[in-house]
Amino acid sequence: MDRHEFRAQLSALDLADRADELRAREAMLALLDDGSDCFARSTFPAHFTGSALVVSADGSRALLHHHRKLDRWLQFGGHCDGDANVLRVACREAREESGIENLIVASARPFDLDLHEIPANASEPAHWHYDVRYVLIAPVDALFAASHESKQLRWFTADELKCLALDAGLQRLVEKWRRLQVRRCH
């Protein structure tokens, strides 16, 4: 997928009832249109990232990792590093960070759009991640292994995730996943 196909995919998303994501999409489209190398991590003040909520084969649990640097539970994801195929980036990052092979893409369309600020550090100024999020399904009996980026990995039910101090974007992502579970059961 190139930048133009990605733009068309974002434009086609029905976000009528998703106000925060509508604002995120507008910012993402503007970033795509400004001509910058928005898929490179060296592009400031914003660049694209790809991430994925990994769910169990039966859909009852989600796998998160406790990020070593940020010291909080997150979905898997990371920088595009020049790749405009954000779904491929999300799949790569989920595989590298979870150790799970053969993850299944639930849908090639983005599941969630999020903008979040990254604080300045020794090597980068404060900047924004324009995060495009997908859902990936783990194979039955998938075994995970934490990467160097994680303190630990753990499967959570939707109810268990409600007890964690997740950021607003991840709370929204989890709530959307929970609503899918409810619809599957009825």
List the domain count as a whole number: 1
Q: Tell me, rounded to a whole number, the average pLDDT.
A: 92
Helix content: 25-40%
Terminal CA distance reads: 36 Å
CATH class: Alpha Beta
Low-confidence stretches: none
- As a percent range, the share of strand residues is 25-35%
Architecture per CATH nomenclature, i.e. the level-2 architecture: Alpha-Beta Complex
Q: Which structural class do you get from the secondary structure elements? A: alpha+beta
CATH topology, anyone?
Nucleoside Triphosphate Pyrophosphohydrolase
Report the CATH superfamily. Answer: Nucleoside Triphosphate Pyrophosphohydrolase
Shape: globular
The tally of helices reads 5
Question: Would you report the number of β strands?
Answer: 8
Topology of helices and strands:
Layout: H1 3-12, H2 19-33, E1 46-55, E2 62-67, E3 72-74, E4 76-79, H3 86-98, E5 104-105, E6 112-118, E7 127-137, E8 150-156, H4 158-162, H5 168-185
Parallel strand pairs: 1-7
Antiparallel strand pairs: 1-2, 1-4, 2-3, 2-8, 5-7, 6-7
Task: Summarize the structure in short.
The protein is of the alpha+beta class and 186 residues long. It is 33% helix and 27% strand.
Describe this structure in words.
By secondary structure, the protein is of the alpha+beta class. It has one domain: Nucleoside Triphosphate Pyrophosphohydrolase. 33% of the residues lie in helices and 27% in strands. It is built from five helices and eight strands. It has helices at 3-12, 19-33, 86-98, 158-162, 168-185, and strands at 46-55, 62-67, 72-74, 76-79, 104-105, 112-118, 127-137, 150-156. Strands 1, 2, 3, 4, 5, 6, 7 and 8 form an eight-stranded mixed β-sheet that branches. Helix 1 (3-12) runs antiparallel to helix 2.
